[in-house]
Description:
Layout lengths: L1 E5 L4 H18 L8 H9 L5 E10 L2 E11 L6 E8 L8 H15 L4 E9 L9 H8 L3 E12 L5 H15 L3 E7 L7 H8 L2 H4 L14 H14 L1 E10 L5 E10 L6 E9 L8 H16 L5 E7 L3 H9 L3 E12 L1
Parallel strand pairs: 4-5, 10-11
Antiparallel strand pairs: 1-2, 2-3, 3-4, 5-12, 6-11, 6-12, 7-8, 8-9, 9-10
Helix pairs in contact: 5-9
Amino acid sequence: MDIVEFGPEDGELVSGAFEVLRAAHEFDIPEGPPPHWGVFEKSLAHPMPDEDSTSYVALRDGKVVGTFRTMFPNRENKHFGMASLTVHPEHRRQGIGTSMLERFLQLARAESRTEVSLDTHVTWEDGPARSEAGAEFLKKHGFTLALTSVNRRCLTDAMAPEDEQTLMDKSVAAAGDEYEIISWTGRTPPELVDTMCRIDSMILSEVPLGELNLEPEVVDPELKEAKAVRNEALGVLPLQTVARHRASGEVVANTILGVFDDTEYTDGFQWITIVDPAHRGHRLGTLIKLVNLRLLREQHPHVRRIWTDNADVNAHMIDINVKMGFESVDALAEMQRKI
């Protein structure tokens, strides 16, 4: 078996890797959002600007039987490394996953990384059963559970209109007149770039990270622009709603929904929702999520489901999501190993 690096110019390997992802999705997590060919293909040519990522395939007799991508932060957290690793369902328990994992660990050591993580789907409560093989495989290779994130989904019209309006009215009343609600699609308005960099830089210090040892990322206008350019290249459309504190002019709450520029793809993704700790207690999180949901229905009516994930200990955000109609499906176990 050979492990080969590939890029956007390697058409057959790209197709083979995507087929592995497609088959694994169908076999492992058919209830989840399927991988998108266009976004996958374009992401090879347009990696995240704040990490160095490389893609590989495992070949047996010339056929792609597995694939993995390494991701090494290149700004903060240079001690850390991540990978996503997938073996075709028809070729498991043949040592392919072990060979790919060993290559990843070799690459991590070469990059002087001292902590690495991979995740795997696990069963959550009474949701669909997930195989324990992924978690057991990682435990066998010295990984321990660092964080559990629960995957949830809801229909875009999950709430009855009258219930949604009641929740909106209560949130507007709690927010009062101190805050201005602003929405946009795509790039951040120029006048908001600096304040958005401020709140984006708070994310890793405010979200639960479990046992993951990660320092906050410093987001500057250059990084924000680079991420916007990447989204446009991939055909990813962010819909964003924020609350700006009128007295200070600072954005103090932010939420983002991501959809694909493909009207046949009916899944959307709830990305970050964050409220500045100094401005909590005003239902700003609920308010901006409701406004953003209405923006999604207005601009992308083909999107029927929204997916999100939250750390299992993030009780406040989970409560908001449950009120909006999100139901748990399964969970991601983030497994970590020190090397």
